[in-house]
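Example 3.2
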Amino acid sequence: MNVFDVGVFRAINGWSDDYAQFWRFFSEAFNILWFKILIALLVIGMIWAGGRARRTVLLALVSVGIANWSTDRLKEFMPQPRPFQVMNDVLMRAGRAPSHGTASAHSANMAAVACVFILGLGYWGVPWVLVAVCTGISRVYVGVHYPHQVALGWLCGIVSGLVVTKSWEWIATRRKTVESGQEHEKPVEGQAS
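Structure, written as tokens:
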């Protein structure tokens, strides 16, 4: 492991337990019933609102699925240990995940949401960027990921968000072009246009 990476891990993981409730929330919020209900209501509200809000939340959901899948594939094909699996003095503030730590799925998922919300809603996406940053830091604080694994998770999430958003934009532009009749049929070889 890189000395810098381990040093940053030890610094963040060593933060006072005074911050434990704050950081554990960002690490484990999706295990809390009221938070799941709140997110479900947000998604339903955005779908109901229609327009950009609906498109953004639906693209974010697709992006999260792809980001999560990509981190699982990285863990499968490039296994790397989690800090507590190789270090004896890790301050564990979360459950010990049995999987590899190659790329943080938590970080990837929140980065995917942040990317899609920034691209889809502009400044309304800024809170999700803060959530993504806090989620990544929390995974180091609770002892389950090294900083480079969080950074790789953020990268997976950003790429997923960009791919999904840009693909949708391309499809929407293509559909408008076809519907407006601006796309002309290409002449068959040997026919005059």
